[in-house]
Write a structure and sequence with these properties.
mainly alpha; two-stranded antiparallel sheet
Length: about 300
């Protein structure tokens, strides 16, 4: 294997891993606040791609305006999803909330099939994102360079919000002890809505970037990426944002390198994600950057 071949695959791995990281952050944010696995997160990812698609094809918006509309509407959808499906069950047993999340996921998928149709749709990728950039002996499509840079910027902004703003301080307080946060006059509902909205916007950004990189939309497109990003969040330490990014990058590298160096195992690339999850849970159940926690009953 020559150096250009390795570098080419590293760039592909960075791009895929950054996509996983964007979606995994949403999982880990919601879990960090409510100890809830939002199984509908992958379907929110799918909606972001569809809204951007129809904004550009039906309403003839410029691509950048369509993307902004997709991010905004998906964020609002995430807030509405929390209020309708999760907030009424906040004081119920955890199994009830989990069942509600699974039900919401299937509902969104089936509604999307009815509304958008089951036939895959080609995403209109602007020429800007398809430009080939040559770096030395390797050629990289522009979108593969944009995704890691965008993921890094969004991670920096999110960490700033969490560690340097009053909203972030309230998020950390709610994550640590929700009843005590209420006693300190923190509007828990507002913080939870902000968390769901932010996570949904990140999922929408991931969905649009995914559609630009793999330009095809279908109502179930969020299922496998959603599962993999959940795995990435668990591997990194669910509840830890930096851990989610690390898990996403690690998962992306493993997938791409398996395809590159062991092409006969390409058909098993999804299985390796689950194998990796099992190994991490056996060796370090809290994840690579996670901390051991006592489950509150």
């Amino acid at each position: 294997m020559d150096l250009p071949f390795i570098l080419q695959n590293i760039s592909n791995a960075m791009s895929l891993g950054s996509l996983y990281a964007l979606i995994a952050i949403g999982y880990t944010m919601v879990y960090g606040i409510l100890r809830l696995i939002n199984f509908a997160h992958g379907d929110v990812f799918m909606l972001g791609g569809y809204i951007a698609f129809y904004s550009m094809t039906i309403f003839f918006m410029p691509w950048w305006a369509g993307f902004v509309v997709a991010f905004g509407l998906t964020g609002i959808f995430g807030i509405g999803l929390e209020r309708l499906a999760y907030r009424p069950l906040r004081n119920s047993p955890k199994i009830s909330i989990m069942i509600s999340a699974i039900g919401a996921s299937f509902l969104i998928q089936n509604l999307a099939t009815v509304i958008f149709g089951g036939r895959p749709k080609g995403f209109p990728t602007p020429d800007f994102f398809n430009k080939v950039v040559r770096i030395g002996h390797i050629s990289v499509v522009a979108i593969s360079l944009i995704i890691p840079v965008l993921a890094g910027i969004l991670l920096a902004v999110l960490l700033y919000i969490i560690h340097r703003t009053k909203t972030g301080m309230a998020m950390r307080a709610v994550s640590t002890d929700l009843p005590a946060a209420r006693l300190m006059a923190i509007d828990v509902n507002k913080i939870v809505s902000f968390t769901f909205g932010t996570g949904s916007v990140l999922a929408a950004i991931g969905g649009v970037m995914w559609a630009l990189k793999y330009p095809q939309l279908n109502p179930t497109m969020g299922m496998i990426p959603g599962l993999k990003c959940f795995i990435a969040a668990v591997i990194g330490g669910i509840g830890n944002i930096t851990g989610a990014v690390l898990g996403g990058l690690l998962l992306g590298f493993i997938e791409i390198m398996i395809i590159a160096f062991l092409p006969t195992l390409t058909g098993y690339r999804d299985a390796f994600a689950f194998i990796m999850l099992i190994i991490v849970l056996l060796v370090k159940p809290s994840g690579l950057l996670g901390k051991n926690q006592i489950e509150k009953v």
